[in-house]
């Protein structure tokens, strides 16, 4: 019997066996090479600093600053980097210093700042400078420490590879880290990373979980800067690296699951349902996989089952997943949304009598209501939860799904204390739902009700009106 079709294939045809030569469809995109001076030094803070007296105090402050939602992003990151820099200088041993530099580099990897200049070649311009060179210097400083073991060095090298990946997407006249590395190494940055990750994966001193991480990064080197694949050979080589990662002896379940989930994504790109299903099934058989990994595998497999009208097994899988400890509210809500889909799909596939159909619709409504109410949100947040329900359910493109989507949007508009800004956003989605139903007149009328209380969605609505009716966007 052929395996069930995947959700990305919907009702189309699918391969019945694994053929490695035809497994991977590919998107042809030019591989952009790209990526600086790697001299080691402790990062230098740029803001006036709070002086910390102990290593523990500086590390604690860095963590709190990085997590503080009330601080502006640039201030939060600069303050955290400064705290970790001080921690590195206050460290009592090399391991403490390495940990402080690693934390600093994690923030520097994602940090950037606007720089303005009034003269020279870039006169009167403002541009973005990324802190990738600082991250590399922090990590190189850590690698030079004599008092750290091979496991810590592997952790540092894996993080440095992540910095290289991030920097390779940000090459311009002001961000020359990767071009300088490539010039020094006389090879593309992808090959620099790949060779180092291969060495890590092959080293007996590298812990099993870090071997998996190294093989995952090796697989990433076959992607181009747009995170797609230039050739089918690159896609196949990425698959082989991930497969090796999923089979590392002694690796933990979460590490193996990470590789398997990425294998499933490759199968999605290659439109291969066999490997797609097999990879997710393997994750579900790893008892110590993380709650999020179990949720991802279960919901993807349930989507496959629902798409192939295997409703009861899908519902059983989803119900069992709800019992997994540690799921977030969002993850639990996603399961309830998919359960709602299963009831509508049962109507479509079984064509029951009117009374049974009505009962199934009641069940679908109940699951969607649970998804929203799980959040315990109020006001705009609750309205947004109902709006999310509608956006999810309407993608299945059946009149019953659209009916439920409208009901969820009406519930959103009826939320007490919803702001005018959120109301405008929800009203836009009302119109979008009509448009997706191909009800042009109703869609245009609904778009006209979107107010300028939310300028972004008002602008979207005006564009849609112009597209659908030929009228000029106006106030």
Model description:
The chain is an all-alpha fold. The protein has a domain at 34-187. Helices cover 63% and strands 3% of the residues. It has helices at residues 55-67, 73-90, 94-110, 132-143, 150-168, 177-185, 189-202, 208-220, 232-246, 253-270, 273-284, 291-307, 311-321, 329-350, 354-373, 379-393, 399-413, 420-436, 440-447, 455-469, and strands spanning 112-117, 125-130. It has a two-stranded antiparallel sheet. Helix 3 (94-110) runs parallel beside helix 5 (150-168), helix 7 (189-202) runs antiparallel to helix 8 and helix 14 (329-350) runs antiparallel to helix 15. The longest helix is centred in the C-terminal third of the chain and has 22 residues, at 329-350. It is globular, with a radius of gyration of 26 Å. It starts with 54 loop residues before the first helix and ends in a 6-residue tail after the last helix.
Strand content: under 5%
Number of helices: 20
Q: Which ranges are low-confidence, i.e. pLDDT below 50, for 5 or more consecutive residues?
A: 1-47
Kindly name the structural category.
Answer: mainly alpha
Q: What is the rounded distance between the termini?
A: 59 Å
- The gyration radius over C-alpha positions equals 26 Å
Mean pLDDT, nearest integer?
86
**Shape field:** globular
Helix fraction, binned, reads: 55-70%
> How many beta-strand runs?
2
Strand order of the largest sheet: 1-2
Mind describing the biggest β-sheet? 2 strands, antiparallel
The helix/strand series, from N terminus to C terminus, equals HHHEEHHHHHHHHHHHHHHHHH
């Amino acid at each position: 019997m052929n395996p069930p079709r995947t959700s990305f294939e919907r009702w189309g045809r699918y391969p019945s066996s694994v053929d490695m030569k035809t497994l991977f469809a590919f998107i042809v995109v030019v591989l952009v090479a790209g990526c600086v001076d790697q001299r080691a030094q402790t990062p230098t803070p740029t803001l006036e600093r709070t002086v910390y007296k102990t290593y523990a105090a500086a590390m604690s402050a860095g963590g709190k600053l990085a997590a503080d939602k009330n601080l502006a992003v640039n201030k939060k990151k600069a303050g955290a980097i400064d705290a970790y820099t001080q921690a590195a200088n206050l460290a009592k041993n090399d391991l403490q210093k390495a940990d402080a530099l690693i934390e600093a580099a994690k923030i520097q990897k994602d940090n950037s700042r606007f720089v303005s200049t009034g003269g020279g070649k870039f006169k009167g311009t403002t541009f973005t400078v990324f802190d990738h060179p600082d991250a590399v210097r922090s990590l190189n400083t850590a690698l030079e420490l004599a008092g750290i073991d091979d496991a810590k060095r592997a952790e540092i090298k894996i993080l440095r590879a992540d910095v290289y990946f991030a920097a390779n997407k940000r090459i311009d006249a002001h961000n020359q880290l990767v071009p300088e590395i490539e010039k020094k190494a006389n090879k593309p940055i992808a090959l620099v990373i790949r060779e180092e990750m291969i060495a890590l994966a092959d080293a007996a001193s590298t812990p099993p979980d870090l071997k998996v991480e190294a093989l995952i990064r090796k697989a990433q080197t076959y992607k181009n800067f747009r995170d797609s694949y230039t050739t089918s050979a690159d896609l196949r080589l990425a698959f082989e690296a991930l497969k090796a990662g999923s089979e590392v002896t002694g690796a933990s379940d979460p590490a193996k699951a990470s590789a398997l989930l990425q294998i499933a994504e490759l199968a999605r790109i290659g439109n291969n349902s066999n490997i797609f299903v097999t990879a997710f099934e393997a994750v579900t058989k790893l008892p110590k996989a993380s709650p999020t990994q179990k949720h991802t595998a279960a919901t993807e497999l349930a989507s496959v089952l629902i798409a192939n009208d295997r409703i009861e097994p899908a519902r059983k899988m989803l119900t069992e997943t709800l019992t997994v400890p540690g799921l977030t509210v969002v993850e639990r809500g996603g399961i309830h949304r998919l359960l709602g889909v299963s009831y509508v799909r049962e109507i479509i596939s079984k064509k029951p009598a009117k009374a049974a159909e009505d009962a199934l619709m009641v069940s679908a409504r109940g699951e969607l209501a649970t998804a929203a109410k799980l959040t315990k949100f109020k006001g705009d947040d609750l309205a947004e939860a109902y709006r999310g329900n509608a956006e999810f359910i309407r993608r299945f493109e059946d009149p019953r799904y659209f009916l439920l989507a409208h009901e969820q949007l009406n519930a959103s508009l009826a939320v007490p204390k919803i702001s005018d800004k959120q109301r405008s956003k929800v009203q836009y989605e009302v119109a979008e739902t009509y448009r997706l139903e191909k009800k042009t007149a109703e869609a245009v009328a609904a778009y006209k009700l979107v107010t300028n209380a939310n300028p972004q969605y008002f602008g979207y609505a005006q564009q849609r009106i112009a597209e659908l009716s030929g009228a000029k966007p106006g106030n």
